[in-house]
Amino acid sequence: MTLQQLETFFWTVKLGSFGAAAERLYATQSAVSMRVRELERALGVELFDRTHRTARLTPKGRELMDYASRILDLSTELEHRIGAPEAVSGVVRFGVAEVVTTTWLPRLITVIAERYPNVRLEIEEALTAELMASLRLAELELVLAPGHTRTPDLSTLSLGVVDFQWMANPALGLGDRTYCPRELADYPIIGMKQSSFHYAALEDWFMSEHARCRYLARCKSVAVAASMTIAGMGVSYLPVRSYRQELAQGKLAIVHVTNPLEPVEFIAACPEGHSYSLARAIAELASEVSDFDRDDSGL
What pLDDT, on the 0 to 100 scale, is given for residue 228? Predict the structure, then answer.
């Protein structure tokens, strides 16, 4: 029995098929199937019931899954805690929100390359709900995005908070006054798609006064929403730190509102159940590198 066989078994179960495990492990499907067969021969038991259309775990297979998870965790932790950093190898697939991409992600990648030169990264940028769905399907191992540190079924680290504010081009004529949700709803709103972290909170903010905003557009990209806002097409909810220059140049102005939302917490999220993994090590580095504001309440 080898670690490679256990890892192959683990990912076959986790991802639900030999094909998905082969893609995850950069191996052929026949190689994955052979490793599982070799593991079964080494243990002298069948791990999968192959009498059905899809392979199902036998009772012994379900029992092994718990052991395999713990053994792989310990192996990874040993490699990281005892071995030299340059000896650590592997692939980490992680997803990031756009605000992370445009701020400190390049610095994180540089630190990872320096600390773990033999680790490869596969990075996907998407909206928060899409990233979290991929994390739960085991298509990603780590997500850096808006979220809450107390999220069920996830192991999380806080990355700090980011202040978002309503903004508009001064030419739109909103002036220096303070707007309630009902009043702001009279202006064209440049929003984000429903899979964004802010969508529900902003909808609730408008509905607190039974107001329905009229969306000029719903964007997947903060940068696209910002460019439309700078062009004077409407009002959007943007991260202040990303548009300080435009605010200073008078291309954007903050629109003051009643009952403003709290700053948004960002987290590094891994699936729960792995006490230690390469993805967790990357999450710890992300927490160190992040220059988002740290909330004093202990988030």
Answer: 97
Q: Answer for the pair 3, 67: CB distance below 8 angstroms, yes or no.
A: no
Mapped onto helix, strand or coil, the DSSP state of residue 235 is strand
Spatial distance between the Cα atoms of 177 and 291, rounded to a whole number of angstroms: 32
User: Helices H, strands E: what count in the chain?
Assistant: 12, 14
Question: How many angstroms separate the Cα of 120 from the Cα of each of 88, 148, 275?
Answer: 10, 28, 21
With CA atoms as reference, report the closest residue to 261 among 217, 201, 210: 201
The whole-angstrom separation of Cα 234 and Cα 232 is 6
pTM score = 0.77
Low-confidence ranges of the chain (pLDDT < 70): 53-54, 80, 83, 85, 273-276, 295-299
Distance of CA 38 to the CA centre of its chain: 35
The closest alpha carbon to 284, from 267, 271, 296, 263, belongs to 267
Tokens 């959007």: give the residue.
236
pLDDT score of 297: 46
How crowded is residue 88: how many other Cβ atoms within 10 Å of its Cβ? 17
What structural domains does the chain harbor?
A: 3-81 (1.10.10.10), 89-162+264-289 (3.40.190.10), 164-257 (3.40.190.10)
Residue from 147, 48, 51 nearest 95 by CA: 147
User: Which whole-number Å values give the CA distances from 81 to 68, 84, 116, 154, 211, in the listed order?
Assistant: 20, 8, 13, 23, 55
Asked whether the beta carbons of 232 and 169 are under 8 A apart, the reply is yes
For the record, the structure tokens of 165 come out as 């504010």
